[in-house]
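User: Can you recover a sequence for this backbone? Please restate the input before giving your answer.

Assistant: Of course. Working from this structure:
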């Protein structure tokens, strides 16, 4: 029998949802759940599935029974996992993907390596996926691409880098972790992913990075996106430590059909902006 957690699901559909009008799918894979967005030919979100699983076996069980994912359309799968590496475009070589990840984690044989060009290919986000997990999503799909989950966050913050002050830090909170990127003199200096279950843990990492970069806590700007409410993180708490502490959400490139936009209440970063 399937784990009872697999039966937990939340589905949202637009007022005029039609499976025959679905043109593409975007799936965001977290540790114990995935969120699946269906889009029409204009790129507007028409439906959302949120489903939970306990392990690889139960994930396969859920995916095989997800009628939305079964549609034969173009798919993008975003993996919110480690390891990940950000490589400058000038030195990037697609034949060296295992080498890039070898600096952060020992590489196995039964994996596939993935990369995504960011900021007009000025840098590349590199990660990997186990082939057994990959097979769960590929199946008979002919049009599928894999990306690391940080691709959306990085593409968003890098597009406006020339407008930043000299000390700028961005954070995107998701599930049990967050991405952090710091810019010094409008250049991306630090990018990393951290595990985190509370606001104190987040602040510990933030202090470490800003102190390392010699950022002035009375001057530097810290902007936090995503599911920060789950960490009980609020403006008052943040401004106790950083004068220019901002809670925000991305200016959206995700558009919704009528009735589906309620999904943005989840405050998932990708509910607003997608790579």
């Amino acid at each position: 029998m399937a784990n009872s957690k697999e039966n937990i699901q939340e589905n949202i559909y637009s007022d005029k949802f039609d499976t025959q009008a679905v043109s593409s799918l975007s799936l965001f894979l977290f540790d114990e759940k995935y969120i699946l967005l269906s889009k029409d030919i204009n790129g507007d979100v028409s439906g959302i599935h949120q489903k939970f699983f306990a392990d690889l076996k139960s994930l396969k069980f859920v995916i095989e029974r997800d009628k939305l994912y079964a549609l034969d359309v173009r798919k993008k799968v975003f993996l919110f996992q480690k390891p990940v590496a950000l490589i400058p475009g000038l030195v990037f070589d697609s034949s060296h993907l295992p080498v890039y990840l070898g600096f952060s984690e020992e590489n196995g044989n039964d994996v596939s390596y993935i990369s995504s060009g960011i900021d007009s290919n000025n840098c590349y986000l590199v990660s990997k996926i186990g082939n057994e997990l990959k097979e769960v999503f590929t199946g008979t799909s002919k049009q599928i691409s894999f990306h690391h989950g940080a691709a959306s966050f990085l593409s968003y913050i890098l597009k406006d880098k020339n407008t930043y002050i000299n000390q700028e830090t961005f954070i995107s909170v998701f599930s049990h972790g967050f991405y952090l990127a710091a810019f010094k003199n409008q250049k991306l200096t630090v990018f990393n992913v951290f595990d985190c279950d509370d606001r104190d843990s987040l602040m510990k990492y933030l202090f470490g990075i800003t102190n390392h970069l010699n950022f002035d806590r009375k001057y530097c700007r810290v902007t936090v996106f995503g599911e920060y409410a789950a960490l009980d993180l609020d403006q008052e708490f943040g401004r106790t430590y950083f004068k220019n502490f901002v809670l925000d959400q991305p200016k959206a490139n995700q558009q919704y059909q009528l009735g589906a936009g309620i999904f943005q209440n989840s405050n998932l970063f990708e509910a607003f902006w997608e790579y």
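That completes the design. The chain has three domains: 4-79, 85-148, 155-247.
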